[in-house]
Design a protein that fits this description.
The chain is of the alpha/beta class. The protein is built from ten helices and eleven strands. The strands form three sheets. The protein has a four-stranded antiparallel β-sheet with strand order 3-4-2-5. It has a four-stranded parallel β-sheet with strand order 8-9-7-11, sandwiched between helices. A three-stranded mixed β-sheet has the order 1-6-10.
C-alpha cells in the first residue's frame, strides 16, 4: 500500500469553507495542477536538461539523499473530449467522457505499468488524469521522466486543511432547545420560496467529497441513497479513499459512511439536511446524497482527491452535483 511519508502545510489558510451545491472551483484547480498546460501533450526528449525540467521541484526536494516520495507520472497523451459537446444529453456526455478517459489510460499506461511491476515498485493507476501514482526514489523518478511518453513528474504532498471546528459550549441551556424550523441561512437564500414552487431537489443526487459523512444523523439518514427505510446498501453509494491512516476513528477503507471530523456531515447537511420533524438545514431537502472520504481528519493529498473524483465519475454517473472540500497546494 502506498503511504505518504512527507507532509507540507498549505500556504493559505481556510478560515471558513463556504458550503453550497456548487463547490467546484477548488476541484478544477486540483485537476489543473496535475493535468493542465498545453505542454502536457508535447513529447519531450530524454536528455539531461529535459529530464530535469520534467521533474517538479517538490519531487526533487523530497527524494534528496536517497529518500522515497510519492509522485505522479503524468503521461503525454491526453484524451480528446471535445466530441462530448455534440452529444444531446448530459448522461451521454458523461458516459462518453468516462469511457474516453478510461480507454486513453488503458491504451497508454501499459508499458509504464509493466515497467513498475517488473521492479516491484508501488503504484496506483488513475484515468481521470492520465497519470500513475508511484512511490520511489529520485533514480526512479528520473528514469520515468526520461521516457518520451511521460510529460512530467509531479508530487503528491500531504496537505493540512484548516477546517472550521465546533465551538466549545460555555454554558448548558436551562431547558431542552427545540431546533429552528428553517435555518436562517436557508431562509436568506430564499430557498423556501423555491420549495413553494415545487422544486426541492427531488430526483437529484448530490455527492459529498470531504471528511466523510455521519450517515446515521437524523437530518441525513432519510436522504442517503443507500438507505431504503429498512436496510442500508453502501455499494456504489460510499467510498473511502483513506488507506493508510494511523489512529483515525474511522480507520481505513471504511465499508460504511463515517466522518472523522464532522465537517463532511456539516456540508452534506447544508445540501440536503432535513429530519422530517421541522429541522430543515439543507438547501435541497428532496435530494439524495452519496459520499466519499477524501481527507484523513484535516489532511488530504492530490491522490486522495483524485480517487474520490474517479469513484464519483465511474460508479455514480447518475449523480448530478458535487460538493468538495479540499485545499490547493503550491
Amino acid at each position: 500500500m502506498i503511504k505518504n511519508a512527507h507532509r507540507i502545510s498549505a500556504s493559505s489558510l481556510l478560515r471558513r469553507i463556504f458550503c453550497s451545491l456548487f463547490v467546484v472551483a477548488a476541484a478544477v484547480s486540483l485537476v489543473a495542477a496535475v493535468a493542465s498546460s498545453n505542454a502536457v501533450g508535447q513529447r519531450i526528449g530524454g536528455d539531461a536538461v529535459n529530464i530535469a525540467n520534467k521533474v517538479a521541484p517538490w519531487v526533487v526536494e523530497h527524494t534528496a539523499y536517497g529518500q522515497q516520495a510519492e509522485f505522479f507520472v503524468v503521461l503525454a497523451e491526453r484524451a480528446d473530449l471535445r466530441p462530448a459537446a455534440n452529444l444531446p444529453t448530459k448522461t451521454e456526455k458523461g458516459r462518453f467522457v468516462y469511457q474516453t478517459l478510461l480507454e486513453k489510460a488503458r491504451t497508454t499506461q501499459g508499458p509504464i505499468l509493466q515497467w513498475l511491476r517488473e521492479r516491484k515498485i508501488e503504484h496506483q493507476s488513475f484515468y481521470i488524469v492520465n497519470a500513475i501514482l508511484v512511490k520511489g526514489t529520485r533514480q526512479i523518478a528520473e528514469a520515468l521522466a526520461a521516457r518520451p511518453d511521460v510529460a512530467r513528474i509531479e508530487g503528491n504532498p500531504l496537505i493540512h486543511n484548516n477546517l472550521p471546528q465546533p465551538e466549545p459550549v460555555t454554558e448548558a441551556p436551562s431547558k431542552p432547545q427545540a431546533p429552528k424550523a428553517i435555518e436562517p441561512g436557508i431562509t436568506y437564500t430564499h430557498a423556501p420560496d423555491v420549495w413553494g414552487l415545487g422544486f426541492t431537489g427531488e430526483g437529484i443526487v448530490v455527492a459529498s467529497a470531504d471528511t466523510g459523512v455521519r450517515w446515521t444523523h437524523n437530518a441525513l439518514k432519510p436522504h442517503y441513497r443507500g438507505w431504503d427505510g429498512v436496510n442500508a446498501d453502501h455499494d456504489y453509494n460510499w467510498h473511502d479513499s483513506i488507506h493508510d491512516s494511523v489512529g483515525n476513528p474511522c480507520g481505513n477503507d471504511s465499508p460504511f459512511p463515517c466522518d472523522d471530523l464532522a465537517h463532511g456531515s456539516h456540508t452534506t447537511g447544508t445540501m440536503i439536511g432535513d429530519d422530517g420533524a421541522g429541522n430543515q438545514i439543507g438547501m435541497a431537502p428532496g435530494a439524495k446524497w452519496i459520499g466519499c472520504r477524501n481527507m484523513d481528519a484535516n489532511a488530504g493529498t492530490p491522490a486522495r482527491y483524485i480517487e474520490c473524483m474517479e469513484w464519483l465519475s465511474a460508479r455514480n454517473l447518475r449523480r448530478n452535483l458535487h460538493s468538495r472540500s479540499l485545499e490547493h497546494w503550491h
